[in-house]
Amino acid sequence: MLLGGPPRRSPRSGTSPKGPQSSTGHVHFGKSPQTWPRRTRPRSPGLAAPSGVRGSTQPKRRDFPRRAWLTALSRYGARLWMGRRPSLPEARGPAPRSAAASRASRSLASPETSPSPLPATTRGAVAGGGSVQGRAGAQKEVFPGQGAGKMAAPMELFCWSGGWGLPSVDLDSLAVLTYARFTGAPLKVHKISNPWRSPSGTLPALRTSHGEVISVPHKIITHLRKEKYNADYDLSARQGADTLAFMSLLEEKLLPVVHTHVHTFWIDTKNYVEVTRKWYAEAMPFPLNFFLPGRMQRQYMERLQLLSGEHRPEDEEELEKELYREARECLTLLSQRLGTQKFFFGDAPASLDAFVFSYLALLLQAKLPNGKLQAHLRGLHNLCAYCTHILSLYFPWDGAEVPPPRHTPAGPETEEEPYGRRNQILSVLAGLAAMVGYALLSGIVSIQRATPARAPSTRALGMAEEDEEE
Amino acid sequence: MGHMVKQNSDKIAAEPWPENATLYQQLKGEQILLSDNAASLAVQAFLQMCNLPIKVVCRANAEYMSPSGKVPFIHVGNQVVSELGPIVQFVKAKGHSLSDGLDEVQKAEMKAYMELVNNMLLTAELYLQWCDEATVGEITHARYGSPYPWPLNHILAYQKQWEIKRKMKAIGWGKKTLDQVLEDVDQCCQALSQRLGTQPYFFNKQPTELDALVFGHLYTILTTQLTNDELSEKVKNYSNLLAFCRRIEQHYFEDRGKDRLS
CA of A253: which chain B residue's CA is closest? Predict the structure, then answer.
């Protein structure tokens, strides 16, 4: 509509315009150059400098294979591949700011034609049907009179609260949070422990700037990519394929074990009572703490049984041993793949790193009884270093604010002491007041005042017998 | 994950591969389904690549004979092993392996890609067979129950369908539409195609169990007649995958004098 040129497979013909445009990756609208001059001027200063934004030269070199992968992936909904990717963790600081600055400058530069430039600048290659939706979406979110529509309502992420030194104790929430940190997405994070408070009823959930709610983790990440927070921007086609393969490996081998840990977590009654239930009971408000943990437990158990029930194992132990063996093998494979690199695909984190980190962090930090897996993981030094590296770089304050796991059992107790005492006193007082009030009202006890004038009225309070008289 | 008969690996290694090793699967013409056929073909390809002779025997109750409930399974000497993963380990214990020449990183990638195929392709095949009403009605029910008399054929078919649907729900595929499943297949094929590139096999010159697995699934998808051609169309989009299947078929199946695979 606005940009004329077919947004479809023209990338393959290699007509990507040069200059700042290529820094947006895949803008190949044939007619767009006419709109460019308006935008490039304010944009280029913002974009030229920061290291976080991929320079204009880079995409051209690697355009072809990446485009093929990206356009294919775009068929699934991850349409907009123009994203800037933080190059190095150290540049994380400047990168989000520069991105925000560039976005702001872009938006400020063209308030009068707000619908048109934004799709071209902010939306990259949109293949097929995605184009219409992408532009429609872009149009939707831009309101005349405001800057970029995106700025109007920040995205909000609801996720499980933290514990054990981690920003979140739920696998999916942690993965989404890590991805957001990698890309510097400006999210307002609500850490809650009551899934009913989240807009979709489950955690994690993302409320986008249009008010739409997404609750499947992969879709959340896809949405973040659409909003130009793309950590996989620079991956080659083969690395993209590797990402898929390793995610499948994680899901197949490690996920059952994380659930099994939850299984031993929940099922092992001693552990359940001491650690899990206590944690949930503290974290969740009344009356959820009564039935929500049980419900989650049942869900996990059911999934575990379904997935493993096909094997008809002779006994539970055999199944568990096999699960743990596969998990250990998977961890070893991950360690081998990571090698000595900082992240799985070089020096900058990608979405695969977010997921691997969330699995590893949970397995490392959670205080669980079965130490075999943790011991094995601790033996894989590059994975441990990888975890601590990401934690210290991307979650420095979150990691620090929660006391180390060793102290966790003691911590909540001391913290809750003052509240506990106060609650106890209040509840006792409330009980006393209730009893006294009932007694007075029903006449079991009647108050005799010293003044005789008052005596008849107080006696009138009693419905049944009057007890003592002064 | 399958069930391997617990044996000392020494005992396994001691006996050489016998001439009368057999592979059991369901009846080829009337009964076997897409996913089982793919698995069986993968094992056959793997054994061919290892140069181990195997005879394919079709039995209607193969699924129940199998120690883990999955087909195919092989009967070698006095041991019974089912599913590709355990079979690969079993064969390795006997001293034959296709992936010894790979380094650690490549082995990790190989395992990851095998999981990808299982996770996406196999699940998509199962979905198509058991959760897509058109296919279920026209093909699956009839084939699955064909060796049994009424009403057993219906009962068994419904039971299996219910079981598969529960599994789909547990892994989150219950709510997917057919189009989404086909897109997943496309994504998987694209990943495989990109990983393969222009090489003859996934790890350049020599085939590995990954090649066998991919061949099994893709070949079956390409050559099975379903209610519509969407699934095979997705695979046909990638010419290097087609060439790959052709190459393995020619090299390991036709050249050995075996009959063309049905």
Answer: B115
